[in-house]
Amino acid sequence: METVVYEGNSFFSTGGFFGGAGFGGIFISIIFIIVFLGIIFTIVKSISQWSKNNASPILTVPAEVVTKRTKTSGGSGDSAASTRYYTTFEVQSGNLIELPVSGREFGILVEGDIGTLTYQGTRYKGFKRGY
Q1: Which of 4, 122, 128 is nearest to 63 (CA)?
Q2: pTM of the model as a whole
Q3: Where are its TM segments located (predicted)?
Q4: Same structural domain for residues 60 and 118?
Q5: Residue 115 maps to which CATH number?
Q6: Total count of domains within the chain
Q7: Which stretches within the chain are classed as H helix?
Q8: Which domain holds residue 72?
């Protein structure tokens, strides 16, 4: 049997199927912990990638611009959309390397361009047409 106690302008349940108000508090705590852990995971992953890139050598290799793509997110309602730009290069060994580039570089690079690609880990450093 559920006991209901009246205090002022609200009712507090002390029993019931889910243990009363305790279930809501536990549920909110679990959601908070999941969100917090997600943020921590993202920060650790970003720092790890940054560190890995810093430890990588700066390489300059012959390459060809194979394809370009964009990834747009946001933009609903009054919020602004953000666009990320990526270019895929094929190096002499036949490997494909996709790197994030700035919007300016994205506009300058043309599929089929041949030249030398300079990069460090997952960081695009530049592309010079011709060998």
Answers
A1: 128
A2: 0.68
A3: 20-44
A4: yes
A5: 2.40.50.660
A6: 2
A7: 21-55, 103-108
A8: 56-129
